[in-house]
Amino acid sequence: MLESIYVGMTGLLGYSRGLRVIANNTANMNTPGFKSSSLQFADMFYTGGNLGGGIASQNYQQLGHGLNTTGTTLSFKQGELRQTGNDLDMALDGQGLFVLKDADGQLTYTRAGQFKFDPNGVLVSRSNGSTVMALDGEGSFVEISLDGQMTHPGSPTARIRFGGNLSSTAAEQTVSNVQVIDASGEAHTLSLKLKNAGSSAPGSWTVSLMDGTTVVGTGEVKFTDGKPTPDATVVNVSYTPPGKAAQALTLDFGTNVTSFASGNLSTLAMSSQDGVGPGALSGAAFDAKGVLTMTYANGQTVKGARLALARFDTPDAVGSTGDNQFQMLDEKAWHVGTAGEGAFGKVKSGSIEISNVDLSQEFSDLVVMQRGYQASSQVISTANDMLQELFSMKSK
C-alpha cells in the first residue's frame, strides 16, 4: 500500500507537469512566433512480484513503480501568417528562422520577425534589442545598418531626351526649361536654340545649348522625310556648371522627334533627363529573398544587406530560451542560408507568424490531465484508507 501511495504520487507529479505545459501553451496562444510543446510520458522501472527486489522471470510477476516524464517536445508546425502593415514585421513561409545576436555575442534564433531600426540605424528585435544578422559575400554574419544610407546622393545628368515636332518651315526654334542636374545634385535650367540650314542643307539644323546667353556647345541634327537621320540624332557637348567640374551631356533627338511642315509652330520640348537630385530615405523593407530595399524621396531604390536564416534537421536540436527565441543544441543538425534557397522559405514583409497553438487540442489534453490527476489522487486516498484500516485492525 505504501508503494501504491508512491505510484499515485508519481501520477500527481506527472499530470501536474502536463497541466503546466498546457497552461504555458494556452497563455501564449497570441504570442508571435511561439511554438507549442507537449509533455512526453513514460512508465517507470519494474521489480519482481515478490516485492523484495527479486528478478521477475515472467511478465506477470512484474510490478511497476508509476509514471515518469521524459521532457517536452516542440512542435514547429507553421502558424498562421497575419498581416500587420509594418514593413519591418516579417514572417517566414518555410522552415527557416531569423538569426539574432545578443549583447554578449551569443546567437539565438526566432520565428517572431518583429524588428525595428534602433537610434544607431541597426536592425534589432523589438522584444529584447538583439541584433538581426545578415550574411555578407563571404558567408559571415554581419549586422544590418542604415549607417551612410540615410541620404541618396543622386546622379548627374548624362542624357537629355527631346520629343515633339520641329517645324521644317521655321527658321529658328528655342526650347526652354532644359533641366540639368550637376554632380552635387544642384539643378540648372538651360535652353536650346535650333537654326534651320534652309535650302543649303535641307533637313539640317544647327543645335546650340545655351546657359543664359553663353553657348555651352553646338552640334547638328538631320531629318530625312521628316524623320531623324539615324547617324545624326545626337549632339554631344561638355557643360561646366559655375564653380563645378565639367560634365558630358548627350542631347538625344531620337525616335520621338519629327520635323514636318507646320508653319512656324513647333512642339519640340525636353521629354526627360536621367539626372537625379539628392533624396532622403523614405522607406526600408525586405523583399521575398530577404534583401533590404531602401527607397528615397528622389524616387531611387538601393539594395542592401540580405537576411541570414537558419534551419535544423530535427526538433531535438532546438531549445527554447524565452523572448520568442531558440538556441542551438546540436550544431551538426543546423544549417545557415538565405531566403529563397531550398527549405529556408520566403520572407513575407508586413506580416508576422502567430502562435501555432491549437486551442481545441489543448482543451482536450486538459481534460485528460484533469482526469488523470483525479484518478491518481483517488489511488492515494484509497491506499491511505486501506492503511488506516490496517492500523485499526492491529490496534484491536
From TrEMBL:
Boundaries of each Flagellar hook protein FlgE/F/G-like D1 domain copy? Answer: 91-145
Where is the protein situated, by its record's location annotation?
A: Bacterial flagellum basal body
Q: Which Gene3D superfamilies match?
A: Flagellar hook protein FlgE
One Pfam family from the UniProt entry? LlgE_F_G_D1
Q: Which domain of life is it from?
A: Bacteria
For this UniProt record, the keywords arranged alphabetically read as follows: Bacterial flagellum, Cell projection, Cilium, Flagellum
Chief subcellular location equals: other
InterPro entries, A to Z: Falgellar_hook_FlgE_sf (IPR037058), Flag_bb_rod_N (IPR001444), Flagellar_FlgE/F/G (IPR020013), Flg_bb/hook_C_dom (IPR010930), FlgE/F/G-like (IPR037925), FlgF (IPR012836), LlgE_F_G-like_D1 (IPR053967)
Per UniProt, residues of the Flagellar basal body rod protein N-terminal domain are: 5-35
Instruction: Give all residue intervals belonging to the Flagellar basal-body/hook protein C-terminal domain.
Output: 349-391
The family assignment reads:
Belongs to the flagella basal body rod proteins family.
| Xref: PANTHER family | FLAGELLAR HOOK PROTEIN FLGE, FLAGELLAR PROTEIN
Q: What is this protein called?
A: Flagellar basal-body rod protein FlgF
Q: Which organism is it from?
A: Variovorax ginsengisoli
Give the classification, highest ranks: Bacteria, Pseudomonadati, Pseudomonadota, Betaproteobacteria, Burkholderiales
Chain's gene name: flgF
